[in-house]
Amino acid sequence: MIWLTWRQHRAQLLVTAGFLALLGLLLLGSAVEARLYVAGHAAPGCPGPGVACADLEVALGRRYDAVYSVFGWMPLVLPALIGAFWGAPLLGREYERGTHRLAWTQSVPAWRWLAVKLSLLGGAVVACGLLLSLMVSLWRPVFRDGIDSSFGNVGVFNMVGVAPAAWWLFAFMLGTAAGTFFRRTLPAMALAVAVVAATMFTLFGVSDHYAEPARVELTGTVILDDTDARLVGASWVDPSGREIPEPGSASGCPRRVDAGRSSRNAEAWQACLFGKGYRYAVYYHPPSRFWRFQWTEAGILVLASAALTGLTVRRTLRHAA
Amino acid sequence: MRPALEATGLGVRYRRTWALRDCSLAVPAGRVAALVGPNGAGKSTLMHAAVGLLRPARGSVGVAGEVAFVAQDKPLYEGFTVAEMLSFGRRMNARWDDQGARDRLGALGIPLDRKAGRLSGGQRAQVALTLALARRPDLLVLDEPLANLDPLARHDVMRTLMGEVAERELTVLLSSHVVSDLEETCDWLVVLNGGRLQVSGDIEDLLADHLVLTGPAELAGALAARPTGGAGVVSGGPAGRQATLLVRGAPALDPRWQARPAGLEELVMGYLRSPESAALPGLAGVGT
Questions:
Q1: Mean pLDDT computed over A302-321
Q2: pLDDT tens digits, residue range A73-114?
Q3: B88–A4 CB contact, under 8 Å
Q4: B199 located within any domain
Q5: Contact between chains at B91 and A102 (C-beta distance less than 8 A)
Q6: Does B189 share its domain with B232?
Q7: How far apart are alpha carbons A234 and A283 in whole angstroms?
Q8: Which residue of A has its CA nearest to B14?
Q9: Structural domain boundaries, residue B236
């Protein structure tokens, strides 16, 4: 069975391994080059918060953006590819070609065929996802240490920790389940891609609710001093302590519309409000919630994968002919 | 002796339609049984239930010993070489005669390094059959093994099969909707029609037990109305002034009837034309 799994799915395994190897080389090269640059150009005490480090920060930022543009699309596209090319053909192609009647009438019973394939390929998918996460987590601090962790940006958040493994496993099981219900590869691939995309946007949307947001009241500024936090919402608090969506003319601060890209009038208005005792309440998730959010998202996806596995096994064993 | 294949009250349902109903039959060990019936009669369904691909909704079906199956269209993994298909068989089965399989393919001139997707129809059928035979099964189930094959390939496949049957104790159940394919090779007949079992029995006994009568049309009605001595009209009727009837048993005959033994094809066609007739062990009634 192990040989058969390898023989039938080696194309996917090799392409994925090759992709991860290439990506690893790219990240390694970029990190080494950045380290050499820092060693050659950094003023003493850099990288760090000092003013002298600004040039270095800009140079590192440019290097980071160049690589990030290559893999910025990966949180969405890679799970979709896993669903379409690892999941969908697993059962879809067997049914399509009629080979399920060959595979499931040998001495090895159909349930074992299914169990071995799902666990070997599912395990490989999880391992590949973790490897991707490891590589990104090693690469990113070279550029972003002291600037941000991987929490604030939801795209980056889904490239580190256990998120990629959970997403890949979910996409794989989704494609597999679609394959056994459609009994054809192409519709199963399409469904896997569509549902992975829909699930991703849904989960990105609901991720603000993984925990009760922290609340802080700011005076003198409307900008939270933590670029890595995830903002959930904000509102003004009047001097009596009530939250109000938008201070009106009763506040005594007239609001004038800014022309073009200037924010002078808005800033003046905010300064006026703060002067009259208004405060600005910000709801946000601090970066310390990184693992809580990682495990919540992974938990949702693993539960969904388990449900899809149950459906796949049931459907496949009942409709083996 | 235990039958090689036995079904009792077998019923299989796809959603709301019954593909197979109340099917009870036994194929004795060592027989080459022909499963015939029109398209959609339930032949594949019966076979899938027998090899465990389908779970029956009613009744049961059992097989004595190892069973090997070759599905319709002889599925093989297109991207595998013939050698890799053998490797598949060896790894997926406890019992496997690798040398026998290699010898057989060698004798047929099928190269082991050829991709399965590039084999001719006849070679494909031979590889599929070889994979099944290498498992040394007690029962071999073949779904339309001769469909889509040219006459030469048909002959070769049947020769491979008969060679194996002659060599060792092997029961074969093979389906076809072309009766003439089966005449020379099979010694047991199972007829399915519309999901119901119509005939199950030894071909020689069945042929000995049925007559084709030709005579004046006006006698047909009387014969059908008065079955005598366990005999009866299976099917047929007046066609113009002449009537041709398939009858079971030895009826007391009016001398104006001309009787001759039935051929296998006539027998099968006779039953298929009148789905209400049945010739089953333990069922005396014909034309009930």
A1: 94
A2: 888 899 999 999 999 999 999 999 999 999 999 999 999 999
A3: yes
A4: no
A5: no
A6: no
A7: 6
A8: A319
A9: 205-273
Domain shared by B215 and B163, yes or no: no
Q: Enumerate long-range contacts of B257-263, CB under 8 Å, 24 or more apart.
A: B257/B213, B257/B214, B257/B215, B257/B219, B258/B213, B258/B214, B258/B215, B259/B211, B259/B212, B259/B213, B260/B211, B260/B212, B260/B214, B261/B207, B261/B208, B261/B210, B261/B211, B261/B212, B262/B207, B262/B210, B262/B211, B262/B212, B263/B207
Domain match, B227 and B168 both: no
pLDDT tens-digit series, residues B31-79? 999 999 988 899 999 999 999 999 999 999 999 999 999 999 999 999 9
Q: Is A321's CB within 8 Å of B54's CB?
A: yes
State chain A's mean pLDDT as an integer: 90
- Name the 3-class secondary structure at B156: helix
| Residue A47 pLDDT | 65
Residue B136 tokens, joined: 């040394």
**Is B54 an 8 Å CB contact of chain A?**
yes
Q: Does B215 touch chain A (CB under 8 A)?
A: no
- Residues of A at the B interface (Cβ-Cβ below 8 Å)? 1, 3-4, 7-8, 97-99, 101-108, 318, 320-321
Task: State the nearest Cα–Cα gap between A103 and chain B, in angstroms.
Answer: 8
The verdict on a CB contact (< 8 Å) between B69 and A7 is no
- In the three-class reduction of DSSP (H, G, I as helix; E, B as strand; rest coil), residue B279 is classed as strand
Q: How many Cβ atoms from other residues are within 10 Å of residue A111's Cβ?
A: 13
Is the Cβ pair B73, A107 closer than 8 Å? Answer: no
Residue with tokens 């991207």: B79
End residue of a domain, out of B151, B174, B194: B194
Provide the token pair at A68.
């990030």
Q: Select the more confidently predicted residue: A40 or A91.
A: A91
Report CB contact under 8 Å: B92, A101: no
- Residue A129 to residue B210: CA distance in whole angstroms: 70
Residue B280 within a domain:
no
Average pLDDT over residues A199-209: 92
What does R_g of chain A's alpha carbons equal in angstroms?
25
- B258-261: strand order across its sheet: B232-239, B242-248, B210-216, B258-261
Which residue of chain A comes nearest to B45, CA vs CA?
A: A321
How far apart are alpha carbons B126 and B156 in whole angstroms? 8
Residues B222 and B184 both lie in one domain: no
Cβ-defined contact of B71 to A98 (cutoff 8 Å): yes
No. of H helices and E strands in chain A?
12, 4
Residue B51 contacts A where some CB pair is shorter than 8 Å: yes
Q: Do A104 and B94 touch (CB under 8 A)?
A: no
Quote the minimal CA–CA distance from B268 to chain A in Å. 28
Question: CB of B53 within 8 Å of any CB in chain A?
Answer: yes
Q: How far apart are CA A43 and CA A53, in angstroms?
A: 7
Under an 8 A CB cutoff, do B91 and A1 touch? Answer: yes
Q: Is B118 a domain residue?
A: yes
Give contacts of A114 with chain B, Cβ < 8 Å. Answer: none
Q: What is the ipTM of this complex?
A: 0.89
